[in-house]
Write a structure and sequence with these properties.
By secondary structure, this protein is an all-beta fold. The chain has no helices and 5 strands. It has one domain.
Length: 94
């Protein structure tokens, strides 16, 4: 989930729910709001609701190609108790 350092929370199972709202305000420019909740667990480390992590953030999009719908994206994400995370990538998260 955006907002958590990749690989920080690992176990045998994960349960996540993520959502994103995309808004295009110019032909090649857009914005996004996103959030997610999730947790990891195993047979030895049972699922605990109070350990569930929340993430949220905002981002900007620039469509590099009108034909291929390839986006350049810059996201700023946060999770309580964590540092802000910046993501500069090609394509979409999902």
């Amino acid at each position: 989930m955006r907002g958590l350092f990749e690989g920080k929370y690992r176990d045998q199972n994960s349960l996540m729910l993520q959502g994103e709202y995309r808004y295009k305000f110019l032909p090649r420019w857009g914005a996004v709001l996103f959030s997610g909740v999730g947790n990891v667990f195993s047979a030895e480390n049972k699922f605990q609701f109070q350990s569930t992590k929340l993430t949220y953030g905002v981002g900007g999009r620039f469509q590099l190609s009108k034909k291929k719908k390839l986006n350049l994206r810059l996201d700023l994400a946060h999770s309580p108790g964590e540092d802000l995370q910046f993501y500069f990538t090609f394509g979409e998260a999902f």
